Sequence to fold (489 residues):
Amino acid sequence: MARLERTPSGRVLADLSGRPVRVHDANVRRASGKRAEAGRTERGVELSSVSHGKPARPGLTWGLACTLVSLSLATGCATPGPVNYYAKDPPALPTLGEEYRLTLIDELAAGLVEGRIQLVELIEDRGTRRVSPIQGRSADFEQFPLAALQAASLAAGSESCGAELDVLVGTEPGVMVKVRHDVDESLHVLMGRAPMALREGEHSAVALKHEFGIGPLIDHGVAWSDADRRALGTALALLDREELAYLHDLPFVRMAGAEDGEHAGFFHVGQGAEGGRIILLDLAFGSDGQHFVGPPERAYPRSIFVILHEIGHAVAELDRIMLIAIFERDRARYNDAVVVANQYVDALNVRYAVVDRLAKSRDRLTVKRDIRTLEKEYRRIKRIMRDAKKRLEDLSDKIQGPPPMTVAYGALANAKLGPTHYGRTSIDEGFAEAFALYHLDPTSIERFSPEVHAWFAGDHHLAAALYPPLDAFEPPPRSSAAPHTRSEP
Fold:
């Protein structure tokens, strides 16, 4: 009797023709080859690398600062990049004395006169100042705040063409300056305020679950600090109710740093995690005093960006999680069908063995009738198995590919070009970077791509999901002033 043999990768070869054959092994694995990698139970999505751009230099000296300025102004934006983008983690700059003002002014003025910079625009509460090559005199910069001159000089070089930087100048608390070096060789400097503090109020695990509906906060070698919980609460408060529904009962895990020392966290789907879990490492919170993201008047510590990045993965990956659950359900039903098919094989083999040995023709006719009935049902079960196997392969292909939400994102103008350098590594990371940046600084996303901004603003990322979660709901609150009714005698 022929058998169905398992391939080395674990696939079952179906013999869908001829007489019944016994299945060698009823256990069908999830998929084979590359599909096994994409559809495995243990799956992780890495976070963006912590160090993009230049490393933080809290002890930057003025000598080194002058070197940076002279190097950055050595060439203009001769070969503009294809799009504007957001540059994460620029160095924090020290507060300089007025004796350095003329050096910074002379460098910027020379850049304008020589055509390496086409415009320098200062935007602050009291108004806007513009200096063009026609002017280009040092006197035109004399009213610029020193912090604006420092940040403008940092972003003026050709290597920063297209970049948008959120720069902290000074300490205790310092001032935020946003600089945009557009691809048209113009510099726009937006003066801000001190960075935002983390959210106040109650931030215990119980309070965060009650307010936002998330799952437990889990300590895994490292305990959640008060600052960590405040950062998580700050990030969650930036989401709307429909987005929070994707995080219902989602655990957040606090762990020490990764072995490579380059990652701040990741979104993980495993056997013990219904719907996955977000894991945050030490580096997620390590540079909160130096790196900030957001409008200059409302810049958030970098940990908020990290958390929102991972939440972006969780939101996009819900469809894949649902597909894996459907795959497991159908795989179990396929294996049940295999077991039943083998039972029919056993029953038919018994009848095949005895039918020709029966002496009486009446008995042979009875057994042959029985055989025809069993063969008909067996063929029906094999059709079910064939269809189920095709369905499992289709599901495996979908699990292997990017989630529908990121596919829709990738079709937008410029989406694959950012919005950060790290976002260009894959469409999954691009979506997560855009998700985080949109919630922290929508104007920055609009500068990168108006289509991407409109997509998020219109909740089209949620509309792209195949299996959106049910919206959150709660029972009505009890009234403390409910009237007391008394039955009549």
Notes: The chain has 14 helices and 15 strands. Residues 404-463 form one domain.
